[in-house]
Model the fold of this input.
Amino acid sequence: MSDTTTARPADALRADDTPPEQTSSGTVRRVGGVTGWVDDRTGGAKGVNYLLRKVFPDHWSFMLGEIAMYSLIICLITGAFLTFWFVPSMGLITYDGSYVPMQGVLMSEAYASTLHISFDIKGGLLIRQMHHWAALMFIAAITVHMLRVFFTGAFRKPRELNWVIGTVLALLAIIEGFAGYSLPDDLLSGTGLRATQGFILTVPVVGSYIAFALFGGDFPGELIIPRLYAVHVLLLPAILVGLFIVHIVMVAVNKHTQYPGPGKTNDNVVGYRVMPVYAAKAGGFFFLVFGVTALLAAVAQINAVWVHGPYDPSAVTAGAQPDWYMWFSDGALRLLPGWLEFVVFGFTFSLNIALGSIVLLPLIYVVLGIYPFVERWVTGDTREHHLLDRPRNAPVRTGLGMAAITFYTILALACVNDIIAIKTGMSINDLTNTFRVSLFLLPPLVFWITKRIALSLQRRDRDTVLHGRETGIVIRTPDGRFYERHEPLDEYTRWKLVSFESHAPLELEPATDANGVARKGARKDRVRAALSRFYFTDRVEPVTPAELAAAHHHGEEHEQLEVPAVATEQRITSGQH
Amino acid sequence: MADANHPSDYDADAYEREVGTAVSLDTGDHVGDGGLPERFENPGLPAHQPRMADLDDGAAKRAERQVATLFGISVVGTLGFLVAYFAVPTDARMFFPGLGDVSTSNFLLGVTLALSLLGIGAGAIHWAKTLMPDVEEIELRHPMRSAPEDREKFGDIVLGGGETAQLTRRPLLKYSMGGALGLFAIPLLVQLVGSLGPFDQPFRRLATTFWDGHEVDGDGNPIFVRPRLMRDPQNTPVRPEEVPIGSVFHIQPEGLLDLESHILEEKAKASVVLMRLNPSDFVSEKARDWGYEGIVAYSKICTHVGCPVGLYEQHTHHLLCPCHQSTFDVTDDCKVIFGPAKRALPQLKITVDDEGYLVADQPFQEPVGPSFWERERL
Ligand code: HEM
Ligand code: FES
Done:
């Protein structure tokens, strides 16, 4: 027998290949010509089905990340428009456009083209203002989104990775914002670049080399704006979009967290399917965010670059502030005293500048990035967490978060100290000194207050579970005593108040083993135990059924108004010292 | 695996075993149970509450009409935008209550675009809320980690891959590949960083200004020519008698404002403020010596991060930098009396030339502007 006589199906490579099964493309085609066509070539239906059927939990705070996502997209769209008219050049020309006050002024092409977009391109000002508003919204949304993730403990395993990606996104976002802000080459943005060059010069040893590398020589030079342009429209957007896609894919892979509540457990997701509910809600929400951006651009002027004129290193205007997300750094520069600059062996260390800029910025993001790992080490918790914490149920974490917000806010307010001074009539020196002291005093104070508030909210929750909801109905007994009627909670409401975990502090193991030999890592364990005590010594346990039964047994659903229930109070605080 | 030591989240027995309030470090996380035996049970999802539109066909019809109206508003907005785009010229202005004088075109384009977008958004969301299913659904989670077999297989594939490629058996391959991969990025980095420059002692350029002289001698050193102090932007020389007490002038060195290129780079270092005080106001001898009959010239570039020190308070004789409020005392060598800057503003020694114009008697004797590493070494 020769080979040619062996009948072989045309679609098999080798003789013993089994012929592929016919796809049921008939059904696929019924879905629609295009989808069928695509599926015939990709087999994507299964994956897409899965995505469209995914369940997402619903809560307003989950929209914060969405706002960030949509404003990023709006930035990309409007930014692409702007590139068609903006000229990223520092070459000097004489302005002859339609904005009369600037006619005849020598300015860079970057600034002139920004004026051109604002005054001569129809709708150009709208697009410019939408771009700027969307950028501000983007950074604000990321920040608030991050706070949501922090205060609810959404960063815990398995989402630490996404937290780190988020931190990088947040850092890149403000750099992207700063780069964009610098492009028009107006007086304010040039002043910002001037300060940036000042920061860079303070880098030990190589500061002047880095500054010359970035600016292509002396400040300002003619290269920084073309370079920032490449960074702003190409490099950072590519990284931002790439990371952001990973971020979203991780949300889908991890499945979204949910707030605790009846029916919600650590191993389910309760919510609505993407198709059709989320597709409509999220798609609609995109249009809302887009529309709000357009409305803002219509009615609220932003970054009126024509007011102060082109950049001139010898000109400055009072009350100059960067965009809000840079305030904290500028504020830190205002608070750091001059004596932090000193000379050692003839070399200058300008800590008064470096600490507020090239140290502060990375430091904040490193601290943010490692927080989940610190907390995980302290709790020793290696389980997955898909149920969010109510902030009150993590009093120390909530306190730390509020302290950090306080610290950041003081720095940011310090950046507008001149404006505050003018508005309040305070002397700027007093104001600055007040800020300096507050920066150290207020965060610990806020930490302490927040923690106390969280603990007392937890106690109130216990009280509500044990004694029911206050009805506001006061009842007078025949012998003249007063009661407020309390109504027992239904089991759904109660579940919200009792379904949390209260961590116990870790206890130190003996530093030496049975033979008196020092145990490895004993010191590290001491630190860990101390931190664990810091986190969990003061704590409130959720009510158990036994306690509730006991409370009922004592007839406490008719709690007396005059006599506090001392016995209960003690049990609540039994976890504390 | 650390996990083996830990009670899984759903392991009720583990809760039971934990009694007491403190737990030992080596077992990791613990959930306090208050020493009490049991916890509440999850009651499950509450019963679903149907919406008006689910029960009442009339309500559903109403919702449908509302959604359609919102979509209609969007269409109106879109058409409005087109009208505004073609009908309103770019330079038209109008008064709008609460906003004042605004660009008509910007206002109308923005509002109509907003309507066009908000209409779609509100319509879609209203539709989802009133007419789309609102029965909550449940999806199960699975632990993130893969099944043990898969993890093992993964390890096998990676290690096995190395083995079949003979990587483990041939260390020479391993090390040479590592070396090559470790080094290949260096040329790219060198090209980038090496070509950014200029790197020929940049700190020297930070320390020279236009006052040092624009022409250079055979060794490349600038030739100092006692340049006149020129008003900025008029570019005219200044006579002492034109400077009354209490006045302040913005100054550039002679020739700078005539430059064809690199004018901003020179201004960023050479800018000077000129003030006249009553000679008896000075507490420092140097101020008088380096000035001319109470007229003094100081670098305008802040020693903090380089903003122009633009504000002069006549009464207190203070120069104030608007960027971070560093305050310099003109009567006392422009030393810092408040704010984040450390160093005094460098003084420019001035005198008058034969024709009676103010000139620099010598260049700045120290680098102007922000601090840098090598500053004190120059
Ligand atoms: C480019 C900026 C960002 C975009 C576009 C973005 C977008 C989103 C979106 C749409 C979600 C899902 C919805 C939600 O939970 O809100 C999400 C979740 C998440 N984001 Fe972001 N985000 C950004 C920045 C950040 C930052 C700065 C952090 C924290 C440092 C962060 C950490 C997280 C985490 C941990 C989740 C999972 C939350 C959960 O499942 O509960 N993201 N992000
Ligand atoms: S630049 Fe002058 S105070 Fe900062």
About this structure: Chain A is about 60% helix and 5% strand. Residues 68-312 of chain A form a domain with the Cytochrome Bc1 Complex; Chain C fold (CATH 1.20.810.10).
